[in-house]
Amino acid sequence: MTVKAFASREHTELEHYFERCELACAFRWAVRHDFHEAAANHFSLAVSEDGSKFLINPNGTHFSRVKASNILLCDANDPDTMKRPDAPDPSAWGLHGSLHRNLPHARCILHVHSTYATVLASLEDSLMQPIDQNSARFFNRVVVDEGFGGMAFQEEGERVCGLMQDKRIMIMGNHGLMVIAPTVAQAYDEIYYFERAAKNYVLALMTQKPMRVLSNEVAEKTARQWENYPNGYSNHFRELMAILDETEPDYKD
């Protein structure tokens, strides 16, 4: 069943309706996967060619209550955004606004404080060694931000932009995790697998036993196999949307 077939005429006439549905799906599943934190953290999706116009969650709304119609449409180049009656959260504007303004390739940006990724971000050495198939997926594809300077307001957001030029995943030291990707499906798949890999890695560290670390050659080969795996991102996200269609259809409202 298509998105339009499922929703009312009123909802399908929302600007960027399908993109809103995809983003709302990501929010709902972030709750189910326990990636959420109170009414904080933010997901955004660029909807203009230059990336400056983007969708983002409404200020102070729990992820479980985000739906297509209450997602905000913002313009990263609009200096009056924070004067709007429905202005986004200041840290959302500081981080996501800066990234969408400065990095056109940052189409979808997901930022979470998920448990195991944040544990990893709190270690002196925050890089995850390739000890299994999941952790190998991220071999040499992660940047670690070691310059945490406080909450992600405008100054911090601009600083982070300089670190994300050629990487898609950032371990935000003393903070959390951020992923940028061309689509919501790919970004959510990355978040999902990174958290699973981080969990395995942290649990392996806790055993205090030597780890069987993959060679650089095998780790790189595996990472490339992940990148070329047919329909991996789309199959995963299609199923997530299908499950919500049956159990939480109001995400499309």
Distance between the termini: 15 Å
How would a crystallographer describe the biggest sheet? 7 strands, mixed
Cα shape: globular
Order of helices and strands: HHHEEEHEHHEHEEHHH
Per CATH, the architecture is 3-Layer(aba) Sandwich
User: Any idea how many domains?
Assistant: 1
What fraction of the residues are assigned to beta strands by DSSP?
Answer: 5-15%
The tally of helices reads 10
CATH superfamily: Class II aldolase/adducin N-terminal domain
- What name does the CATH topology carry? L-fuculose-1-phosphate Aldolase
Parts with pLDDT < 50 across at least 5 consecutive residues: 1-6
Radius of gyration, CA atoms, in whole angstroms: 18 Å
The portion of residues assigned to helices is 40-55%
CATH class: Alpha Beta
> What is the β-strand count?
7
User: What would you call the structural class?
Assistant: alpha+beta
Strand order of the largest sheet: 3-2-1-4-7-6-5
